[in-house]
Amino acid sequence: MASRSGIKRVPIKDVLSLLSQRVSVVAVILEYSFPKTTRGTDYCCVLRIVDQSHHETGMAVNLFALTADKLPHVAEAGDVIHLCNVSVRTFDGEYNLVYSKAFSSFALYQGKDSDDLVPYQVSSKYQRTNADGICIHELRKWRVNFQPNDGRHEFRLFKEIKEGDHVNLACKILHFGEVAKDEWFIYVWDGTNAPPNTIRSKLEDEMNCPLPLQLESLALPRDLYCTFPTVGSILRITFDGSIDKSHFHLLDNVKLKWIKLVNMRLEVHAGLWRGLFTPFTKFRYTPAEDNLILTRKRFSDERISRRFEINYLGCVPVPSTVTVVTVDCHCAPHVTLMEALTNNQVTAKFKCVVRVVAALPCQPEMLRSPAGIYRMQLTLEDATARIHAYVFAKDGETLFGGYPDTDSLSKKLNKLLGVTEGGATSDKRHPPWVSVCLESYYLNKDDTWGTRHFRVSSTKVAEEA
Fold first, then answer.
1. Are residues 127 and 168 in the same domain?
2. Residue 272 is part of which domain span?
3. From start to end of 117-182, where are the E strands?
4. DSSP code per residue over 181-250
5. pTM value?
6. 208 and 107 part of one domain
7. What would the pLDDT profile of 312-337 be if each residue is shown by its tens digit?
8. Start and end of every Telomeric single stranded DNA binding POT1/Cdc13 domain (predicted)?
């Protein structure tokens, strides 16, 4: 069918026989990326599209424009795009379409099956015929039962990730926003615990270069993180500097939805997992009845609902024998740090399994004041959060078994911190999982939540661990 411009609209399978020609295509967006800058002055983005004729792997579309605003603002993968006057090319043996800023045009339509033919974005040269409208209706009806072929994509669980990998993730977007000026994060979750990381910092650097509690420069407000799941790791995703931010507002369309992300880079910063959204990362169409997503949702829902059934599915790691929790906290169930942080009682007692990743001070001779009173700050982490917890006075006596000599105190502290014998100056540590009792308290009765802190109590480093 020819459009008003005289360019023939064809199904994607016919594009394979039209190399170097110009065509028009109506298709479902299988994958899309955010705009990025080219090596010149243009902006570009990449789509992968499918239709009834070619839906196993789809076809790539490379779009170029003078500004990011002139590129498609895809609200959600699965929407419909009408591409007009695009060129058929090949790259690495694969056919693709190239959108020219000079003569091509496009329109974006919602993908859901409806009679609405009003596009939510159109380029300046776009014109639609009645026949194009019929094609859009037919494509929407086909999309209702379309299940993308994910055969060439392996979607890993968070518990399976490794540093430096580029992976595909099937996860839920919990939140997205600018947490500080030009500091954007996506918060995603799949219900599993990300692996603990080697701590690559020297203990003596904690005073001047402390391990951060989170990747963001400012912590999220309490009323927001109280809406997050308390079981399983929450992965923070930030953005490569070459990605244009003008389309970020579109992420509001997928907030609180389960999605698929393709080619996400995974990094570790200060022992914390970080996803990096690169120019090659894409959102992939995820139907409402996607089989993989339904399986992930069932698993995560069950993990939360059966949370306290004898540590169901390893919500909390099995602790080592390095510490012993005394009798007054012994019978309490283990909770995650996120459960302690979001507890609705300002003052409460919790039993947690954590890693002690930093201590301040870390020199055994400085753990007590000149008056002989213990005072120190520990940095604790589990799969859900990282916090500061303090050790004061009698709690220190309990933790270290009274007032041992400096050598004995050093050995006990090193056990907690994962420092091997002779490795006190090493910048690589693997702290053990230990059971501790935490108590929350406040400093100001006029601002109880704003001055809430945690202390370690009723916990002892075992003599033989």
1. no
2. 155-305
3. 121-122, 155-156, 166-180
4. TTEEEEEEE-SSPPPP--B-S-GGGTTTSPPPSSSSSSPPPHHHHTTS-SSS-EEEEEE-TTB-STTGGG
5. 0.92
6. no
7. 556 788 899 999 998 777 667 789 99
8. 9-144
